[in-house]
Inverse folding.
């Protein structure tokens, strides 16, 4: 079998080789041109192409992807943990004070009611509308200390309905420090409570008298209850000793017999032959 190429086959091979060489030279020329352009800074480097996003469908628009590694089991469902901020400034709550406009003149700016300082406490100013600095809050606790709802009721003898009146007592609500699921802790300003207590009771001396009166009533009720309990205990103890002495059962049915007749003959005394209790019986005709 002969493997000799014909003239037409040789011509076709030569033509394909020439075309391949021309394409190779063209590619090399383009690479050289690109290198020179990038080195000279006349053209920007090639940017990676962003993958084309697929159009959203009904199923993909309602689908949410969660990272199960960041989920925690609350025994009532899985919740995603909040990111922890290392910087304390991110946890700080910003309070906007809208009641006082900025005034560049220091003489017309609001000052502390105690020392005249410009460094006012923003929380007291925003919530309680009180002009006081932080140093005076610690220095004058008789006016600017904060009391809980229970302390306000015990110290100034106020009711729940009075403490719920926000026109009288503005409050500072804070998360409960004992348990996060409990109701928020309400903090009242002492000077507001003391002012209302003076109007309610007339003076602080009358408040002290009312407090002492309630303490005495509470002590009297406690003593009365204690005396009743002690008397009942003594009666039960006496009954127990009597039953043990007479060797009686804890419960029995009385069996009475006539003991003596009264002078008029209408009533008769009967005595139980088991426990010895005596009763008076009146006959009705």
């Amino acid at each position: 079998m002969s493997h000799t190429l014909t003239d037409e086959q040789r011509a076709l091979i030569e033509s394909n080789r020439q075309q391949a060489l021309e394409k190779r030279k063209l590619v090399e020329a383009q690479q050289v041109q690109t290198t020179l352009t990038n080195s000279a800074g006349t053209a920007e480097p090639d940017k990676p192409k962003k993958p084309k996003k697929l159009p959203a469908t009904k199923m993909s628009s309602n689908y949410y992807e969660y990272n199960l590694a960041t989920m925690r089991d609350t025994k009532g469902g899985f919740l995603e943990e909040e990111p922890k901020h290392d910087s304390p400034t991110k946890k700080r709550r910003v309070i906007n004070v809208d009641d006082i406009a900025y005034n560049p003149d220091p003489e017309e700016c609001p000052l502390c009611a105690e020392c005249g300082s410009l460094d006012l406490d923003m929380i007291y100013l925003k919530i309680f509308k009180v002009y006081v600095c932080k140093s005076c809050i610690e220095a004058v606790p008789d006016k600017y200390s904060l009391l809980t709802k229970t302390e306000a009721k015990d110290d100034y003898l106020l009711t729940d309905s009075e403490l719920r009146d926000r026109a009288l007592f503005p409050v500072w609500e804070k998360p409960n420090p004992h348990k996060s699921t409990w109701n928020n802790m309400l903090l009242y300003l002492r000077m507001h409570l003391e002012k209302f207590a003076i109007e309610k009771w007339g003076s602080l001396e009358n408040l002290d008298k009312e407090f002492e009166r309630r303490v005495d009533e509470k002590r009297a009720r406690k003593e009365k209850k204690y005396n009743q309990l002690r008397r009942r205990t003594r009666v039960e103890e006496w009954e127990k000793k009597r039953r043990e002495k007479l060797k009686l059962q804890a419960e029995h049915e009385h069996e009475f017999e006539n003991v003596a007749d009264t002078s008029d003959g209408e009533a008769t005394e009967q005595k139980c032959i088991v426990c010895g209790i005596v009763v008076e019986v009146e006959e009705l005709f």
Summary: The first strand starts at residue 71 and ends at 73. DSSP finds nine helices and eight strands in the chain. Strands lie at 71-73, 78-80, 146-148, 172-174, 185-189, 256-261, 267-272, 278-282. Confidence is low (pLDDT under 50) at residues 88-95.
